[in-house]
Amino acid sequence: MSELIVKYDNYLNQLALSSFTAVELDLLMTICSKMKNQELNIVSLSFDEIRELSEYSRSSNEELIKSLKETNIKLSKIACTLENESDVIQFVLFTTFWIKKKEKTLTIQVNPDFRFVLNALDKNFTRFELSEFIRLNGRYSKQLYRLLKQFRSTGEFQITLQDLRNKMDIPESYDLRDIREKVLKPALKELSPCFKGLKFEAKKEKRRGNPVTGYKFTFAKENSKNSKDDAGSLNEKIEKKSSKKWNKDSGKKKGTFYNFEQRDYDYDRIEKELLNMDNID
After folding, report:
1. pLDDT higher for 264 or 104?
2. Residue 36 and which of 49, 102, 125, 231 are 20 to 30 A apart at CA?
3. 76/47 Cα distance (integer angstroms)
């Protein structure tokens, strides 16, 4: 398999990829890796390329088409929302998701107003190797892997119990013992080769009964100097150069969504574009 890097804005980790199977997560991350830094380009992937990169094991084109359709259907149902004090903007990540059966290709285009998710990624991004993600078997392992990779430079990740349920798509019927034995322990066992010294502990509230309110994950932080795609690499320098141009064109207002920092966007312009108004600043 070709070595590809999946790299996206941390905003994508805020979304609950509910009901995605392990196969569908593989397909989604494969698509994201190919759409990285493509701006508004329309990108076409052959079925053969998708199979190779995602290690899709089912042989028939009909099964692949069904898997791609289900992946996009589930993605389109997610409430992708950006919100600050004055605006609420909802969107889909891909405006074009065209499966061409006869040509055996998938054609994709990123939503123009929200290309920040996969483009000009200079800060606040998550990055990992596609091949490493694909090799994971469990869907809980894949979901947790993405969340942990956001904190690869610090080696510490904390999450509330409800956020863990939402982001890893854990059934509400699972009690704390189920979460520990059926979700976290198997996931950490599979992820241990990817994160040295990976362990977790329950965070408890200091009141009667000491109820569990969340979890803290710790692991050895990655050494960016040894990273094949670190900030000092040629690829990263190119991305920084692109980022300066993108930030210059995006306006000067700064917004914060879901308690995490985003880049600068001109929300007045975005709102007018979404409302199809003619006079755009």
Report:
1. 104
2. 102
3. 21
Q: Using DSSP, state whether 111 is helix, strand or coil.
A: coil
Fill in the amino acid letter for 119: N
191: helix, coil or strand?
helix
d(CA 44, CA 47): 10
- Indicate whether 243 belongs to any domain: yes
Look up the pTM and report it: 0.77
* Residue range 99-143, pLDDT digits in tens: 999 999 999 999 887 789 999 898 899 999 999 999 999 999 999
Q: Is residue 187 part of a domain?
A: yes
In this model, does residue 90 exceed pLDDT 90? Answer: no
**pLDDT top residue among 68 and 227:** 68
16: pLDDT strictly greater than 70: yes
Give Cα 122 distance to the centre of its chain. 16
Indicate whether 172 pLDDT > 70: yes
Q: What is the CA radius of gyration of the chain?
A: 20
Instruction: For residue 242, give the nearest of 97, 44, 39, 51 by alpha carbon.
Output: 39
Inside any domain, residue 200: yes
Residue numbers of the domain that contains 209: 139-218
156 Cβ partners below 8 Å, 6+ apart?
Answer: 216, 217, 218
d(CA 64, CA 99): 10
Q: Is residue 32 part of a domain?
A: no
Give the residue ranges of DSSP H helices in the chain.
22-35, 47-54, 61-76, 130-135, 139-149, 161-167, 176-178, 185-191, 234-249, 267-274
Q: What's the domain count of the chain? A: 2
